[in-house]
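Before the break, one more example. Copy the sequence into your notebook; we will annotate it together after we see the structure.
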Amino acid sequence: MKRRFASTAAALLAAFALAGCGGGPSDSECEKVLKHVIELEAAEAGGGAVPADQRADLEQRKKSVFQAIGISYCRDEMTAAQVECALAARTLSELSAKCRQS
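Here is what the structure looks like once it is written out:
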């Protein structure tokens, strides 16, 4: 799950990086968008159904993915409009469909 989790989040964010330029968001905004994408990925991968005794492991995996991907792609390549769109997305499909063209 960890590899799929990280690769899906990274792929989505890389797609945004290719679509946008200029008007870069702040580090804080980039941290929020990356955490949001990771949360969406975790939810769609069954993270909401993780038993209580496995929640700590899930949270550690989320932190590992965050650290592995980092925020530089966002800070350097995404626009403020893309970040705003990504934060408003409620699913990965919505994020992918609506936010690439922001």
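The first helix runs from residue 2 to 19. The chain is about 75% helix and 0% strand. Try to locate both features in your own notes.
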